[in-house]
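<derive_structure_tokens>
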Amino acid sequence: MSIRSISSTAPGLGFAQPPPSGSGTRRPVTEDPSVLSSLTWGDREIIAVMFGADILSTGRDADGTLVGVPPFVWLVAEDRRSGRLSVGSEITSSYLQAIWDMPVNPLTERSLAAALVFLGRRPQGATVDVRA
């Protein structure tokens, strides 16, 4: 047992406590629109490619249909706010794959394909995903 695991046990019980972030599925926070201010320019660029240029300003998709802000956007904003997507990092194919693999997937095949095409056109060396 490592020092970290010993320090995370309940006093006197010997059972590990749940991680501080809690267990269970990550869910996008949609109650607070100010959370969207944590999106970077790069986030906004890929979101526009995935859902349409007006999605963040009007809530309309690429076809002009009023859909609101997609759950994926709220999830990215929450990941920025919480530090899961750290300052200076970009949305990568690895990040998109992790989102795709979630039990409740907020992406469609169309939005994922658009994002992957966008990432494929990015100049080589523009972003390095150190977690991959």
